[in-house]
Amino acid sequence: MKKIIVLNFCLFIFAFQSIEAQSILTLKQKIGQVLEGNAATVGVAIQGVDPTDTISINGHLQLPMQSVFKYHLALTTLHYVDQGKCKLEDSIVIDKERIQAYSHLWSPLRKKYPDGAKVPLAEILKYTVALSDNLGCDLLFELIGGVNVVQAYMNKIGVRDIAIVHTEIEMQSKWEYQYENWITAKAANQTLQLFFENKDNLLSPESHQFLLNILKETKTGKKSIRGLLPKETVVAHKTGHSGKNSEGLTGAQNDIGIIIFSESSYFYVSILLSDSMEDKVTNQRIIAEIAKLTWDYFLKKDSKSTNN
What we know:
This protein has 308 residues and is α+β, with helices and mostly antiparallel strands. The longest helix is centred in the first third of the chain and has 34 residues, at 2-35. A hairpin with a 5-residue loop joins strand 1 and strand 2 (54-57). It has one domain: DD-peptidase/beta-lactamase superfamily (Beta-lactamase, 3-Layer(aba) Sandwich). Residues 2-19 have low confidence and may be disordered. The protein has 11 helices and 10 strands.
């Protein structure tokens, strides 16, 4: 009798897991339909709290990050802070010569301080991540010792499928250079998970909350991951965009983030769109539709869990 009960229980668990697997595979199929017919290469990685809620499409492809790497830079800089090498209150000198050198690049900092200034590190981090400031980005690279320091830290914490070899101003100097700063969608999710779950005290509680708040305040990419989600949705994310070259090719239109329902219910989504001949509206729509399909899937699961 006991054997029969155990067997029935095992069959129930197997059946339940099969249903769950079919459900996440249905999501993958729906995302595949979104990608059909578009002239673009898209890497997608999705992961929930439950390890079985993990899928990827082209998740292994090495795709250009563009400004997504500012997230990895911020993570490394805050590790630098936690080591006691600097403080968030420390002032960073931005001279007028540097301001002028970045006159051709996107920089709200440059517009705010046209004559130069001494700016707190905390402010530079906020501008670099939430507003994707290019001047702030390279100031941070200088502070911690260059791109090699970020690359080394990423490798140290276990992120292998990533390459950060150019600063922002270097990357923008030649179209091909963006492809040398690359990541895979799976690795992008990995860095999000390492940060958000903060296992082994990757960052101090203060630094962790500081970066999380900045990611939630990101102003760029309103029509990407956030595009089709309810306005009240909590999204901590970082975008990256190359613009188009003279042939109409978009090198990168990216958005990676954490969508949070509650402290115990959330998911990671990384969408890297590259080499697209579609227009910007279409590129953003692809990202937004994938994010919405994923949000619908996890919202349904979260609702079931809450009701049970």
